[in-house]
Amino acid sequence: MAEETNQKPAETEKTAAKPAAKKEKPPAVEDKPFEEFMQQYYLPALQQAIAQEGLTDVNLTFAKQKYPLIGFDSTEECWQIIGSWQNGQRQFNVYFPDADIQGQKGFSCHEGKKPSTLESFLIDERKITLDLLVNRLLYRLNGQKWLGRN
C-alpha cells in the first residue's frame, strides 16, 4: 500500500506540470489579403509618412490599370499605388503585377510627362513588411529630390 500512495502524488505532479496552451498571435498585417492590406494599411501609412516629410497635397490611389509607360503598349493590367502632387506635375507608381507584396514589384516616376522607365523595386529583400514598403518608397522619392529640402 505504501507504494500506491507514492505513485499518486507523482502522477498529479505530471499532470500539473503540463504547459499552458499558447495564445495564438493575430496574423501580421502583411498576411492579410492583398487588397485589404493595401487599402487599410499601406495607403494610410504611406499618406502619413509622406505628410511627415512636408508634402500635404499628395493624392494616393490604389487601382488596377495598364502600365502608363511611354512605348509600352501592353494591354495587361496590374495593381498600382499611384501618388501625385503639384497638380499632377509629379507622379510615381508602384506596381504589383502578382497582386502580392512578396511578389515582383516595380517603380516609375515622372515630372509632367508619362514615365519612360520601369525600375525594379525591393527585389533583394527576403521578407517584405509594411514599414519596409513605406520607408523604401520614401527613400526612392528622396533620391528623386522630391522630399524635404532637396
Automatic annotation (TrEMBL):
<dbReference type="Pfam" id="PF11210">
    <property type="entry name" value="DUF2996"/>
</dbReference>
<feature type="region of interest" description="Disordered">
    <location>
        <begin position="1"/>
        <end position="31"/>
    </location>
</feature>
<protein>
    <submittedName>
        <fullName>DUF2996 domain-containing protein</fullName>
    </submittedName>
</protein>
<feature type="compositionally biased region" description="Basic and acidic residues">
    <location>
        <begin position="10"/>
        <end position="31"/>
    </location>
</feature>
<dbReference type="InterPro" id="IPR021374">
    <property type="entry name" value="DUF2996"/>
</dbReference>
